[in-house]
Design goal:
The chain has 740 residues and is of the alpha+beta class. It contains 24 helices and 19 strands. Helix 1 (5-16) crosses helix 2 and helix 3 (38-52) packs across helix 5. It is globular. The two termini are 51 Å apart.
């Protein structure tokens, strides 16, 4: 009764007329053309369903279902609800079909065991590193391996590879392994990425690499790939030597995308400052490169009055920018992040050609559809998730956060300059803040780390990158054919040195990198749904995003930690001791051990002495006592089975356990061959077993009756056993957001 009459009546009406309010909100969504962005969302759901399927799904089923749903949508087009439902189902089945088609089109043989053999083939790509080189070889001959089992591509490292160039025919002895699978269920799966790149083995060359005359000329695709890679390597060396030091490696990576010359400590500095995204050829580089072409062509054409008045100068400049961006994408290696950025750029400039707004959620949705249709597996990677999430959030939220310009025009040049500077800085801070929040869930899920001071790092470094580094890069590339580029690279190098100095300063702050436990799939799905609702919807329905986002945040406060991590081959394990921290046993690789620690939210490194304190070890194995008093034994010698089978509650070993040792829970070499990397969670009356290959199972104490809870995602082909630390690292993904 104390409220104004009009206000209270309004509240009562809205509460009573909820159906009418919902109808008006949906009508507003349709008027704002906000239903179309849900098509790529449904397309992505179909892709996720494909990766959850067991075995090799048939193609006729999803294609037929898609055709039927499309026909039903046409028949029911007068009924809006039915029409929308049929379109959504059509997109889901289309996404599933895209996954099937893509998996079949890239299918190639892969090694299933360790192989030391003589190989011969063409060097398709080459990357210089701090120690040696890494080669991507298109195999022509492989001794003692049948042609049906011979990989098409192998990636090998060479410690001494001077004189090697892309396009050469080489031969030598190689130690090859299958591409390694994830170090723990939910971790980065190099084997899946290798499958879609056609890489069937990884390893290293043993002894000298010989250059031979090819048995036949390479085909045009190999010549093109080798020629582009050789040009990239030449420019990389030119930039690195012109600048020198760590700044030279970073400067070269900014232009060519070759990151092998960046020292690892510098990578850590850039990650700590939250600006590692600048060394990945992606949205920032593509926008600046295409924008430079667009501005130059438009400015040159505007110099001629007749041309500026009679010709569509803006559209001509847009075409030039599209051509220039495409050439830059090919030259920079056409990685997944680069291709995704190119597609987004082409869609934006294509909108200019047809007189439509360049920046809109609809155009972003078209770009997402094209990327997913071409490479459905990109949906599972952090690069796709973080960049599209950041761009969508900035399009939807930044206009709401920015201040509207005040009335009146500044009188003096100084006032105009100050107002422009303040507006530019506020825009940079706003976009960085929004992108940081939007990409935080994906960073926590994939990399188990957050960079709280990324806002400061980006605010200080990106102006240098945008104003000095990238324009210098474009000018240097244009001057490179004339041999006049060295001074330009040196100018760019000075700016890169300042960027590294800023990064080192920000990275020195306490807590610049925060390690968090890995998010569960449920938490990531809920937070992603909240982001989609918030960025796609235009009406007050967007407030519904608070529901899934709130539940997802609640899930993050109760992380799904594992009590035992086990190497895919049983070489080592990490066991939670009485103190609640993980203790290392055996000899897992440092990379795998640090993956376990990060998944647990533990910031220690693999060489930390405290990781071995709670384990009581001898030559036969180790024993760790958990907080509830249970004994977990890691057996390395057959002699230890007799005692451990009597006293331990859980036994982990790479050996084959004797048939009499079945009273405790035993995970031996035979079980690991079936499961791959495995994790255990211990409860009062059950053991939850989650593995890369078999999914999640529950073993009931004390009889250990197995209950299959959920299967493992389809992997496409058999997975390897032994890890190679340097090959486990992602090639095309970055560990921070891309605010482009």
């Amino acid at each position: 009764m104390a409220l104004p009459r009009s206000w209270s009546a309004s509240i009562e009406w809205r509460l009573l007329d909820g159906r009418g309010w919902l109808f008006r909100a949906i009508t507003h969504e349709i008027e704002q053309r906000r239903l179309f962005p849900w098509i790529p969302v449904c397309f992505g759901i179909g892709i996720l369903l494909f990766f959850q399927a067991d075995g090799a799904p048939a193609l006729w089923a999803p294609l037929g279902a898609c055709a039927l749903c499309c026909a039903a949508a046409i028949a029911l087009r007068r009924n809006m609800t039915a029409f929308i439902a049929m379109l959504a189902l059509s997109a889901i089945f289309a996404g599933f079909s895209a996954g099937v088609i893509r998996s079949r089109s890239v299918a190639a043989p892969a090694l299933t065991r360790l192989t030391i053999t003589t190989i011969a083939g063409f060097v398709e790509a080459l990357e210089d590193r701090e120690e040696g080189q890494r080669l991507l070889i298109r195999i022509m001959e492989m001794k003692d391996v049948a042609e049906s089992e011979r990989p098409r591509l192998v990636r090998v490292s060479v410690r001494s590879g001077s004189g090697l160039t892309a396009g050469q025919f080489v031969a030598g002895t190689a130690r090859l392994l299958p591409p390694p699978e994830a170090a723990w269920p939910g971790g980065y799966d190099f084997a899946r990425d290798a499958y879609y790149k056609g890489i069937g083995a990884v390893g290293s060359m043993v002894g000298q690499v010989r250059r031979l005359d090819p048995p036949k000329p390479p085909d045009w695709s190999l010549q093109l790939a080798a020629g582009v890679d050789e040009a990239r390597n030449a420019l990389t060396q030119r930039i690195a030597t012109s600048i020198g030091g760590a700044a030279g490696g970073v400067g070269a990576a900014l232009v060519t995308g070759k990151r092998g010359l960046i020292p690892e400590p510098v990578n850590d500095i850039l990650r700590g400052a939250g600006i590692y995204h600048i060394v990945s050829i992606s949205g920032l580089h593509m926008v600046l490169a295409a924008g430079t072409f667009f501005w130059l062509v438009r400015a040159l054409l505007a110099l001629a009055p007749a041309v500026a008045l009679l010709w569509p100068v803006k559209k001509i400049a847009a075409v030039a920018a599209m051509v220039g961006a495409t050439i830059y994408c090919i030259f920079s290696g056409s990685d997944v992040a680069t291709e995704r950025s190119l597609i987004m750029t082409l869609v934006m400039f294509g909108a200019v050609l047809v007189d439509r707004p360049a920046l809109s959620i609809r155009n972003l949705s078209i770009a997402a559809l094209i990327v997913l249709a071409r490479e459905p597996e990109a949906l599972l990677g952090p690069s796709y998730q973080m960049s599209f999430g950041a761009v969508a959030a900035m399009m939807a939220l930044v206009p709401l956060m920015q201040r509207k310009p005040t009335e009146g025009t500044p009188a003096t040049l100084l006032e105009r300059s100050l107002r422009w500077s303040v507006r530019a800085m506020l825009g940079l801070v706003t976009t960085t803040l929004v992108a940081s929040i939007a990409t935080a869930p994906f960073s926590a899920y994939h990399f188990q780390s957050l960079n709280p001071y990324g806002l400061i790092g980006n605010a200080l470094a990106l102006p240098l990158v945008s104003v000095v580094v990238m324009p210098s890069a474009v000018l240097g590339v244009l001057a490179y054919p004339f041999g006049l580029d060295r001074p330009v690279w040196q100018v760019m190098g000075r700016a890169v040195e300042q960027v590294l100095a800023v990064s080192a300063w920000v990275g020195s702050f306490s807590g610049s990198t925060v390690v968090v436990p890995a998010l569960s799939v449920s938490a990531l799905a809920l937070l992603s749904l909240g982001l989609l609702i918030l960025t796609i919807l235009a009406s007050r329905l967007r407030w519904m995003a608070l529901v899934p986002a709130g539940i997802g945040l609640a899930f993050t406060t109760v992380p799904h930690r594992y009590d035992i991590f086990i190497d895919r081959e049983g070489a080592g394990a990490a066991i939670r001791g009485a103190r609640g921290e993980l203790a290392l046993v055996g000899r897992p690789s440092n990379f795998v051990a640090e993956q376990w620690l990060r998944a647990d939210g533990d910031a220690r490194t693999a060489d930390d002495a405290s990781l071995r304190r709670e384990a009581r070890c001898d030559s036969a194995g180790c024993v760790v006592v958990a907080a509830d008093g249970r004994r977990i034994a890691f057996v390395q010698d057959y002699a230890a089975f007799e005692e451990d089978c009597r006293r331990a509650n859980v036994i982990v070993t790479r050996l084959q356990a004797p048939p009499t040792c079945r009273q405790p829970f035993v995970l031996d070499g035979e079980a690991l061959k079936e499961r791959g990397a495995t994790t255990l969670r211990l409860s009062a009356n059950a053991i939850e077993v989650t593995s890369v290959r078999k999914g999640r199972e529950v073993m009931i104490w004390p009889g250990y009756q197995s209950i299959q809870v959920e299967g493992a995602p389809a992997q496409g082909r058999p997975r390897p056993a032994r890890p190679i630390p340097e090959q486990d690292l992602p090639e095309d993904e970055v560990s921070t957001f891309e605010p482009d």
